[in-house]
Structures are given as C-alpha cells and as structure tokens.
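My main concern about presentation is that the manuscript never shows what a single data entry looks like. The format is easy to grasp once an entry is in front of the reader. For illustration, here is how one protein appears when written out as sequence plus structure tokens:
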Amino acid sequence: MKRISVVILLCIALLSQATAYNYQKQISYQIGPGTHYSYYEEKSVPWALYVVEIDITNPYITLESVKAQDYRYAFEWPSDMSKRKDEEGHRSVSAINGDYYNTSNGEPISTHVVNGEFVKTVNNTRTGFAFNKDKKPNISTSQFSGAVLAIDSLDQWASYPISTVNEARGENALVLYNRFIGNSTGTNEYGFECLAAPVDDWLINDTVRCVIEARESYTGNMSIPEGKFVISGHGNALSFLDANCGVGDTVKVVQNLLNNLPGITQVVSGGPRMLENGVDVVDSSYPEESIGRNHCMYRHPRTAIGFNMDSTKVYFVVVDGRQRGFSVGMSLPELAAFMKEVGVAHAVNLDGGGSSAMVVRNALKNSPSDGSERRVANSILCVSSAPQGDLEHIQFIQDSIAVYKNKTVSTGITGWDMHYNPKGIGNWDDIDISYDTSLGVFSEGDFTAAEEDGTTILTADFNAESDSVIIHIIALNELEIFPKYVTTDSSTTITFSVSAVNESDIRVDLKNDIFAFEVLNPAVGTINEAGEFNAVQSGETGILVSYGDNTDTALVSVEIGEGEAVLDEVESLEDYTLSADEHIDTNGTELVLSDRVAGSGSKAIQLNYTHAGGRDDGNIYLEHDPLTIYGLPSHILIDVLGDSIGHWVYILLEDNEGKEYHAKTSESLLYNDDYRTLYCPMDYLLPYDRNEVYPLTYKGLRLRVNDNADSGTVYLDRVRVIYPTWTSIEKDDDPLLPEEFFLEQNYPNPFNPETKISYRIDKAETVSLDIFDIRGKYVQTLVNEYQTPGAYTVRFQAEHLPAGIYYYRLMAGAVMETKKMVLIK
C-alpha cells in the first residue's frame, strides 16, 4: 500500500511539473486611478492574456454593469457600451463582456442588475458577480424574492410579493416594469398599474421608498417615463394595489437576492464558479450549475472576473483562443490557475468564445477569434469619477521593444494627468529623452533604428519622474533570396522572398518590408519595397537584397517571347525513351516513326499501345532529353491524332527549382478524323500551386490511356509553344491627359481571334483588366499593374478560347466598368 502511495505522489509531482507555465508580462501600465492594465504571453502553448487590476478602495473608482442599448432585448459591442457611458466625471477605464445570452434577441441568460435595477431575474443555479454600494464584491448563486409594502386602511404596512421583474404578468401576479423593458409595460387590459418614482437610490437587498404618481385600471401597456417604473398587478395583486396605492402615497419596494450582499448595485451572471478562497472549484461547480463538462475542459477564448482574498482588488481577465500560433485558448482549470497566480482568490467564468473582449479606455485590446468584436448582451465597466487635469505623468506601455534595422517603431510613450486620465503630449521639448544615438533617432514618440546591431535604454524624464523602455535592434545573418535564378517576361510580376538566420540561430522566412531591394541593371526592370520585380525590356540583371551589411543576390533573365516557337518537330525517336506503369502491357507497346507532312517536318510519333486490363487508366511515358523553354509561354501546343477513346495527353515539365509539373491538354482524344492541335494552358500547370520558377524545361510526354481501351494507336507531333502577345500594352503618345475614366468598346467586335481594348484613366491607380465568360467565370487577366494617367490599348488574343460571348472588366482604384464582346470562329 505504501508503494502505491509513493507512485501516486510521484505522478502528482510530475503532473505539477508538466503544467508549470512561464507567463511573461509583456506590457504593463496604469490606465486610471488605482487601475493597471497588463498583457501576458506564454509562448510554449501559446497563450495571450489580458488583465486589468482594479483597486476598488480608490475613491474615484467603481464598477458598473451595462445592458446593451439599455434594453433587455438588444446587442451591442463592448467597446460601444464603454464609449456610450464615457463622459466628463464618468470615464470608462475598462470593460469586459458579461453573461451568456440568447443569440437571437440579446437577452441575458441569467440575472442582471444595473445600478440597483433588475434587467432580468432568474432563479437558476448559475453563479454571478455582485457589487454593492460599499464597493464590496461577491460571487454566489442567488434566489430572487421581493415585495411591495403600502399603508392599508388600518394604517398598517401591508405587503404583496413581487413575482418577477420585466416579465409577462401572470394570474394574481405583481410585476415591476422599468425602462429596460422599453417605453411601456406591454401588458394587457386585465390589470391595475401604478406609475411610481423612486425617492431613494435603487438597491437590491435593501428597501427603496417610492411615490405613486399615477394609476390606471383595466387599461394596460402603461407608459414608463425615464427614471420611473410601473407596478402592475392582476387578480389578488390588482386588489392590493387598488386598495392601498393611491396617487401621492409612499410605498416601499424590497427586492432581494438571497445569500448575497446588502445594498447590491450591480450583478452580472455567468458560470461556473472557478475559484473560491484560492481553491480551484471548477470540477464541483460546473455540474451544480448545469454547465457542460466539454465547455469547461476544452480550450476556448475566455472572459472571467474575480477579486483577491481581502476584497480590495477586482480583476478583469480575458484570454484569446482559436488562433493557432498566437493563442489557443484555455480550459477553465487552466484559466483558474493563471488567475490565482496573478492574485485572484475568488473568480467566476463569464461568456467567452467569440464574445471575449477586453476594452481599455474605449479601445479593444485583445484579438477576438471572430476577427473583430462580437455584439453581446451586457458588459461590466470600471468607471472613474476623477476630474481631468494637466499632463503630469508619462509612461511607456511596455518594457522592451524589438525593431528591425532602418525601420520605425512607436515607443509607446503616453501622457497622463494626475489621476491617470489619458493626456496628449503637447510639447515634446518638455520631455528629456536620452538614448544611444548611434543606434537610431527618436522623434515625437517614434524610434527609427539605424543599421547597427545593438540595444539601448531610451529614458524619458518629465516632472521629476522617469520611465524607460529597452530598444533592441534585431540582428539577422546569412540572407537568402528566393528564387535565386528566375526567368520572366514583361507581363509577369516576380515576387521575391527572403529568409535569414535570426538571433536564435534559426533560419526563418521574413516579411519583405524589413529588407532593401535594388535592381543592379535598372534598364531591365524595377523592383518595389515589397520585393516585386517587373521587367522593362529583355536582358539580365541582379537583384540585391540587403539588411544592414548582410546581402544576397538573385539573377533575373528577362525573355520576351513572341509568336510560336517549336520545341520538337519529331523527326527522330533518338531523344525519346519509352516506359509505362503496371496498367500497360509493355510487350504490346512500341514507338514507331510515322510519315506526316506538317510544318517544317515530315515525321510523327506513332504510339502503338496495349492496355494490361483492369479498371484503372494506364500511363505511358515518352521521356525526352531536357530542352530549356525560352521565356514564359502562355500555352504548349501539340498535334495529336486520336483513336476515338478518351485518352489524355500531358506535357512533362520541370521548373528551375527541380519541381515537376504537367501541362494537360484542353480536350481528350475522342476523335480519329485528323490531326488536331491541342492546347495546354500554362495557367493550369499540375500540381496547381502557382509556385513554378521559370525557365521551364521540356522533359517529354505522358499519355493517360483510358481503362476502356484494349489496344490502339495514337499519333503525336510538333511540340511547340506560343507566347502571350495579348499582354503587350501600348500607351498612346497623345500628350493631352484624359479628364475622365473611360472604357471603350473593343474593336473589331465581333472578332476572330484578336481584338483591341482601349481605355483611359484620369489619375494614377492600380489598374486591372480581366476577361470573363458568359457565365461570369474568370478567364484571364490582361492588365494588373500601377499606371499613370493616360490612354492605353491592350491586344487580346483569343485563339485558344471557344466562340461565344465574353465580358471585359476594367477597374482603376474604386472605379469599375464592364463591356461585352463576341468571339466568332
């Protein structure tokens, strides 16, 4: 037995070690009186966590709940709730989203109290966070009860129980209605209603005196003016109100949440309870609160609220999730462990998932899993009543910053008044800034790094206070540009990528904007800051990429092809090697040189094949000695005579990086009447990854033999390429710049197979001209580049397209126009 105990203890110890996380505080600064915001990361999981720590003993600070749109059935973004409640003397310092809610109408699932008034009462088992007039927090499950007390005919206090608040009035029920239900009660005419105004501030678990201002019987749907409420009764409750509540009478309203604080002003529910007296209670609380285990134990984005052991500090906590590589989310036990680590002793989970939101000074701080804030039912606000003042404090919002060479980064220096209300820095000369000037330049909050490696401490002194931030200039070594060698033409943009060895001695791919690019022969082409190269004319040039003193070079060859070029006239079989897969009978398969008078040649490949049987297509390979293809052809062509069976022909290619591609013919061999020229579009190379690096090399042919074939003969001849002459753009020499955007009708129209499309642009824009078929399916792009004002003409070559109606669409910035054209053949 002792041995078993030892094993159990050892397992517990190992588990404790396995779940010990290393949270790093990346950002921390004061955002209000006694209120601090911090951002934590745990890289190994990973997690991104946001915490606002609130000293509720500060006389300027309190907590408030907010209902979306101040209406029971409504949605609103947490940041908008924060902004809406933000005004002089009532500044929104921070906000988080609150309760679970009905996603169809924005109604909270559980009890909600705003400034002492119920939005909704629910007697369920869910825990909620409560806050009272003495600024004491509490977490508990609560049952609603209440009563209206009035002086009866015997001059005694009589009472009638309150059934609910803002719900439909039932038989013999007495219901309170306030403005959260709308401008009127929505009740029917079978009741008695009293309009009342509170004399005291609204509080839960306390008594509120009210004065009856008006009463109606058997009317219903009584109006609810701002700041007032309606007592509505039916049956026995009607009799009580009619007998005891006259205009001008003072009545008492008591609304209780049992097992909770006296004088409650705010309640936002959630569930389950996570921490109690510093102990994780998730396992015991979620079944009691009827919350699913998976919801608690799986990793999700989360929102939670809690307070410390002596109830002097409240904590808003949000963890992002569902974002691989950034933050995967937490289970509730994991979140409870983190909250305990930052000082929380009592905590409850709120609505998380895509609803999780952390707002600081009306700005969203976290990264919601939806990509943006989600509209929710309610929120909890930290509010400051501190007056505005002059600039008194400066602080950096983070302890350290890393910046790439020659790049500018905000140092995050911020200004605040004496009560830590945000305050702009008006005169930068009033702040004494010191740092190592050899590593960069500071200007009005921004730091621009030089080309030197190193680290400096940037210190700001103001008003006898000092704060600092560590600035590190990132070192990168062993740059590698990709592609290293590439062929292009004047119609294609080449985007280079760069990798480097970082300070952890790991090679990583990096964004191009941190590097400097240079074309060594500007006559050949240009390159922009994004590493995008566009050719101007034929020739060769080096592309230099640099990061400080570290450089690498790529070689670009610009080859602008025109018309048609033959790769193989097939006058001999010496360059071809025959092979096949297991679905082809190689004993019954052969290559023969056949007579054919075509072009400049007189021979063709005669491929006699025999299928091995079975229900699988077979593949015959005719490997050719490698031939480098000039430039960037738009299509590869091959003349083929089929045998009326649905075979397919593929052109075998290899790019400059050694990757293998196939170009598939546009139609199968369901014919045997004569040789046909079959087109293989280069836009659809297989595999379709768009990562091919030119120049391409011709490696041979593949015939995919249909499984319906037993044997037969296919003829192959004249492998050649054509170049995209339609991409040539001619800019008119008219010196008068156009005054408007205009797309002309193509000419000729109808056309076969070439037409011209002209257009004018009146300002410099990124211009695109695209072709679509009659069904709206994209066909090809004729123009996609930045153009200056002027008139342009584009040749569109459509010999590879079937006859029919096509559309051409011109876009210049936000302006767009479309016209129709007809291709006949």
Notes: Residues 1-18, 726-736 have pLDDT under 50 and may be disordered.
